[in-house]
Amino acid sequence: MIPLIQREVVQVRKWISPKEFIDMLALAQSAPGVIAINTAIFIGYKIKGIRGSIVTALGCALPSFVIILLIAMVFSNFKDNAIVERIFKGIRPVVVALIAAPLYNMAKSAGVNWKTIIIPLLAALLIWGLNISPVWIVMAAIAGGIIYGTVQANRLKNRN
Amino acid sequence: MGIEIYIQLFLSFFKIGLFGFGGGYAIISLIQHEIEIHGWMTNSEFTDIIAISQMTPGPIGINSATYVGYTASGTILGSAVATFAIVLPSFIIMLTLSRFFFVLQGNKYMEYALSGLRPAVIGLIAAAALVLMNTENFIDYKSIIMFAVAFFASFKFKLHPILLIILAGIAGLILY
Fold first, then answer.
1. Which residues in chain A are contacts of B169 at CB distance < 8 A?
2. DSSP alpha helices (H): ranges in chain B?
3. Among residues A85, A83, A127, which one has the least CA distance to residue B136?
4. What is chain A's percent helix, strand, coil content, to nearest 5?
């Protein structure tokens, strides 16, 4: 979805510069929430303030909302249909594979190494095995990151 | 069904929007957890939503909010409440961030926080996959073979998710 947004707001409409777009994308990806929505809000705000951001967010969410709502309404009638059930029996394990397959490359680009692999492993085991809410994991990760970063920075300072 | 379901949907999806770092797949783990504690749908139903989300345009977070909101409440209003609730934190956060954009850019504490989040997000996605590996989604040895083939096709040959889902649907029709 991001390349589409980039084409529309940078190349076609020229609302923001390519450099601004890259900076903004970094922020939208670091912030919590749906990245496309974050991007839409930022661009709308930049062009026309809060009103602009409401319009761009609505514009970004509305097509999905309508499409999925229609599917949800229709699908609830066909869920128990034998043919639909056979199709989804085939699809379900493949969906799991689609979530698991990018993990290795994502971990590499997130800078996970043999030392830090304990973090995703522990997070996954706590959520999966002990049914801990992912919200706690996120909060612990933020706190842990800040504490570790500060301690490291102090250690460097003391050494100099 | 009273007003409670709407309040629950609002609170759950607000929480998901507020703590859903890492986009797309990482958000699945948070949605999964909320669905499970409220008993809004079965694991296989949620897997179907992910499949539908993959095949339709639009972000997986919005798609899931709309779908779960409708199924949990049985109304369009529920669907709107959940979708609104997942977007609302983005508003608050992005509007605040854009005011302090220059202060925050390169801020060391933000960098520290992100360096903790990045590996944790990988764990969230792994957890999402692990939770879905159950007997609802893996009904027999054929499921396991389909999983292995799809994993390999996606990892090694980067086959497009939509193509893989279509092929899986056809395989399901033939095999079951």
1. 87-88, 90-91
2. 4-19, 24-38, 43-55, 60-73, 76-99, 101-104, 108-132, 141-157, 161-175
3. A85
4. 85, 0, 15
Phi and psi, residue B159, nearest 5°: -60, 145
The b-or-e profile of B104-123 (16+ CB within 10 A means b, else e) is: eeeeeebebbbbbbbbbbbb
Asked if pLDDT for residue B105 goes beyond 80, the answer is: no
d(CA A145, CA B119): 10
Residue A109 has pLDDT above 80, yes or no: yes
Q: How confident is the model at residue B1 (pLDDT cuts 50, 70, 90)?
A: low
Ranges A95-99, A134-138, B22-26, B30-34: which has the least confidence: B22-26
| CB-count exposure of residue B77 (10 Å: 0-12, 13-18, 19+) | middle
CB B138 within 8 A of CB A138: no
Kindly determine whether residue A30 and residue B114, on different chains, have CB atoms separated by under 8 Å: yes
Q: Do you know the residue count of chain B? A: 176
Q: To which residue do tokens 């390169």 refer?
A: B106
Over residues B80-88, mean pLDDT: 96
Taking a C-beta distance cutoff of 8 angstroms, is the pair A133, B12 a contact?
Answer: no
**Chain B interface disruption, residue of A4, A95, A125, A147, most B CBs within 10 A:** A95
Sign of CA dihedral A105, A107, A109, A111: negative
Helices B4-19 & B24-38 angle (0-180, nearest 10): 150
Measure CB to CB from residue B123 to each of A32, A100, A124 and give the nearest one: A124
Chain centroid to Cα B170, Å, comes to 24
End-to-end, the C-alpha distance of chain B in Å comes to 37
* Domain boundaries along the sequence of chain A: 1-80, 93-160
What gap in Å lies between CA B29 and CA A133, rounded to an integer?
9
Model confidence at A63, in pLDDT bands (50, 70, 90)?
Answer: very high
Average pLDDT over chain A, rounded to an integer: 90
Residue located via tokens 């202060």: B103
